[in-house]
Design goal:
By secondary structure, this protein is an alpha+beta fold. It contains four helices and four strands, in the order E-H-E-H-H-H-E-E. Strands 2-1-4-3 form a four-stranded antiparallel β-sheet. Strand 3 and strand 4 form a beta hairpin. Helix 2 runs antiparallel to helix 4. It is globular and about 40 Å long. The relative contact order is 0.25.
């Protein structure tokens, strides 16, 4: 078991186009927009994998770094608060330990931008037939 890290930053209107976020959507594999189902990242182009982690500590560190990169743009003081970020990291740790997908998403710039950070389990417990984008198993 390992996790692939994915990051997407895009417009709220792009995020709202559900057809592009589903595997049946035209050009799904090549479009970087975050999929509706986290496991569906594994169906996208291998080039969208930002990092691969076999251990929990580096995966959490990467996840935390991605949040900190965009934190100041997040809407609302609560989303930016140290306590909120710490709680997100605690939840991510528990999720990684369970071998599941970590899903983080934040609205920013007054709801015009969406920030998504995912750590997708591979092999995936919900989609075990999906191939690993990096050929690992």
């Amino acid at each position: 078991m390992h996790h692939h890290g994915y990051m997407w930053v895009g417009s709220g209107s792009e995020y709202g186009q559900d057809s592009q976020r589903r595997p049946a959507g035209q050009g799904f594999a090549a479009i970087a927009v975050v999929p509706i189902e986290p496991a569906n990242w594994l169906l996208k182009s291998r080039s969208m994998v930002k990092a691969t982690f076999k251990d929990i500590a580096p995966a959490l560190e990467w996840y935390h770094e991605q949040i900190l990169l965009y934190r100041e743009a997040f809407d609302g003081d609560h989303a930016k608060a140290d306590e909120t970020i710490a709680a997100s990291l605690d939840s991510a740790r528990e999720t990684l330990e369970a071998g599941a997908d970590v899903v983080g998403g934040w609205w920013g710039h007054r709801g015009t931008t969406f920030y998504a950070v995912h750590l997708v389990a591979c092999p995936n417990p919900w989609r075990p037939t999906y191939a690993c984008p990096e050929g690992l198993r």
